Amino acid sequence: MRRKDESKKSVILDFIDGYYNEYNEIPAVRTIAEGTGIALATVHRYLLSLKESGNLEYNGRKSISTKRIDMESRHASAPVLGYVRCGEGEEETEEVIEYIRLPESLVGTGEFFVLIAKGDSMIDAGVNEGDYVVIRKQNTASDGDYVVALYEGLNNLKELVIDNGRYILRSCNEDKETYPDIYPRDLKIQGVAVCVMHRLKKRR
């Protein structure tokens, strides 16, 4: 009997997770019963048992959340949209290369996209060529933020400096002759960098 009980519990958990993945919402108890072929009263009893064992949260009605759903809800899926220059700007392009999952504990909440760094003008901020830069999508930024900015039709990753209301795009590289400050007349903030991901290189 115990093996049969565990089997039905597994069926119920799998159905809840599968339903959430497909519809992005929690199924009602009646929906679980109809989808699994298990009697409504039995589903309710198993849900209470699963709650007691710590496998899910259930308030006796529709509020059901499994451990897997809790983990899913703490991640964001972000598209990798190609490259961003860390140096001279280049024309804005958008091409979805892939999607990656980002933990909320690392990047926070919001809508994100990812760009691959090109150039070395931001190396003193820890951004090297080939790094994946996670950008929170927003059209405003504060002094000192690292921003993806569109100016004069060109896209770039720079530090935003605000001096007496004037916007300056500044590289994070000691070579100021190669990477001078940019004083854009028309500036559009596309997002703020929140995280950088890169592969570790062997020392030898």
UniProtKB/TrEMBL annotation:
Matching InterPro entries, A to Z?
LexA-like, LexA/Signal_pep-like_sf, LexA_repressor, Peptidase_S24_S26A/B/C, Tscrpt_reg_IclR_N, WH-like_DNA-bd_sf, WH_DNA-bd_sf
Could you state a single Gene Ontology molecular function term? Answer: DNA binding
- Domain named HTH iclR-type is located at 29-59
Tell me any Pfam family this protein matches.
Peptidase_S24
Superkingdom as given in the UniProt entry: Bacteria
The Peptidase S24/S26A/S26B/S26C domain extends over: 79-194
Its Gene Ontology biological processes?
Answer: regulation of DNA-templated transcription
Q: What is this protein called?
A: Repressor LexA
Species of the source: Candidatus Colimorpha enterica
Lineage here is: Bacteria, Pseudomonadati, Bacteroidota, Bacteroidia, Bacteroidales
